[in-house]
């Protein structure tokens, strides 16, 4: 037996119909029979041939087959189905199809889901998406301009290899290394294997602007809130930003799981609604400890830009905005909400290679957010977590209960100084 086929049964017609061909099959088949023509191979099969090339000297038919193969610089060869396509007609972005797609895609500015692997010409890995893939909009783009441009020419399910010249990659400046991403030298050509999975999950992310049709009811059927429904032509939808505490927690969480045009009926317990306090709403009062019911239709949403897709300036701007929100909430004695704002600010400016170590603005911003969050947690008597953020400031462990007492005493002394007649 050679590769699962008996010697006396290994004829060209039988072999040409096989869909799975191993390197060992090819070696033995070359010895036992004349090599099949290139047309007899299954064009959909993608086969690594690097080891086989080293071991076997090709006969002419095999060389003919090899001419149909497109190779990456990493040594893996792929069967190319069509002639290379010069997408931009300037030689800067060339596409070769490895696997054809099935469904047409209407290229509107929705989220698309792709998998990709980008390498330099010498085979060095620059970036690879995870097993799920990456979502982004064509207008916003991702990684480099070539991805959005190429996807507009692809069908869902299509897999291609792109040769990307600098003008559609990272230009004459290149790209520094970042976390698990490799660097790209100036004027470098990239080889990108790109697979178009289809549309992304149409769910809002944290910070997305959502627009809803919304009806809120009590258990007895009393409507306390209604928006997005009207007998006239003008309908004012209810809108808010997710994960910004602009609505009750239960509604916020539920919307993050919904897709566009989905209608959901929500039953929200008091701890995720208005809690133990009475709440005056648009059409009625919600009594303390009330379970509430919502009918929600997600009409539209605009996703917030992911941190991984932001440049340095955008990260700093977002962090400054969240820090200012946190400071305002501290003045209002809303320490729990302020702590969340400081934590969000820190997400934008975590330690990574995109921020120079000597950048005083980043160091100062990171320090103030850690200190602000630690102060809020002390006010909330969460001393263990407070110490964690103090550690991030490279400060030694301290007795935070004592520190909180000292802060209160200092505040009283300041007040006493301003008001001499006051007793502390």
Automatic annotation (TrEMBL):
It holds the Pfam family FKBP_C. It catalyses: [protein]-peptidylproline (omega=180) = [protein]-peptidylproline (omega=0). This is peptidylprolyl isomerase. It comes from the Eukaryota. GO terms for molecular function: peptidyl-prolyl cis-trans isomerase activity. It comes from Medicago truncatula. It is an enzyme of class 5 (isomerase). Residues 109-200, 207-302 form the PPIase FKBP-type domain. PROSITE patterns: FKBP_PPIASE. Its EC number is 5.2.1.8. Keywords: Isomerase, Repeat, Rotamase, TPR repeat.
């Amino acid at each position: 037996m050679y590769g699962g086929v008996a010697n006396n049964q290994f004829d060209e017609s039988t072999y040409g119909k096989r869909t799975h061909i191993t390197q060992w099959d090819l070696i033995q088949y070359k010895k036992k029979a004349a090599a099949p023509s290139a047309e007899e191979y299954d064009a959909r099969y993608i086969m690594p041939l690097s080891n086989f090339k080293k071991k076997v000297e090709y006969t002419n038919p095999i060389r003919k087959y090899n001419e149909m193969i497109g190779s990456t610089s990493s040594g893996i060869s792929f069967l190319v189905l069509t002639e290379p396509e010069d997408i931009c007609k300037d030689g800067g972005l060339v596409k070769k199809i490895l696997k054809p797609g099935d469904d047409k895609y209407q290229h509107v500015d929705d989220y698309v889901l792709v998998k990709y692997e980008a390498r330099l010409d010498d085979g060095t890995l620059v970036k690879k998406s995870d097993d799920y893939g990456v979502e982004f909009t064509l207008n916003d783009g991702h990684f480099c301009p070539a991805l959005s441009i190429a996807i507009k020419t692809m069908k869902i399910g299509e897999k291609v290899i792109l040769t990307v010249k600098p003008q559609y990659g990272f230009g004459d400046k290149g790209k520094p290394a970042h976390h698990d991403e490799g660097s790209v030298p100036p004027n470098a050509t990239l080889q990108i294997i790109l697979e178009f999975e289809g549309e992304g999950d149409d769910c809002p992310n944290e910070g997305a602007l959502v627009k809803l049709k919304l009806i809120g009811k009590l258990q007895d059927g009393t409507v306390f809130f209604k928006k997005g429904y009207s007998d006239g032509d003008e309908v004012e939808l209810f809108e808010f930003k997710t994960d910004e505490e602009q609505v009750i927690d239960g509604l916020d969480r539920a919307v993050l799981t919904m897709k566009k045009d989905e209608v959901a009926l929500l039953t929200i317990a008091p701890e995720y609604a208005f809690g133990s306090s009475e709440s005056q709403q648009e059409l009625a009062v919600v009594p303390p400890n009330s379970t509430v019911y919502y009918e929600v239709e997600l009409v539209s949403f605009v996703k917030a830009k992911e941190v991984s897709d932001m440049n340095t300036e955008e990260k700093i701007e977002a962090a400054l905005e969240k820090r200012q929100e946190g400071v305002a909430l501290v003045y209002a004695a809303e320490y729990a909400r302020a702590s969340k704002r400081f934590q969000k600010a820190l997400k934008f400016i975590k330690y990574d290679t995109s921020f120079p170590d000597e950048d005083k603005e980043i160091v100062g911003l990171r320090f103030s957010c850690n200190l602000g969050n630690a102060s809020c947690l002390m006010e909330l008597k969460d001393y263990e977590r407070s110490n964690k953020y103090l550690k991030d400031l490279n400060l030694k462990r301290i007795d935070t209960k004592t520190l909180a007492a000292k802060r209160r005493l200092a505040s009283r002394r300041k007040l006493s100084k301003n008001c001499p007649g006051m007793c502390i």
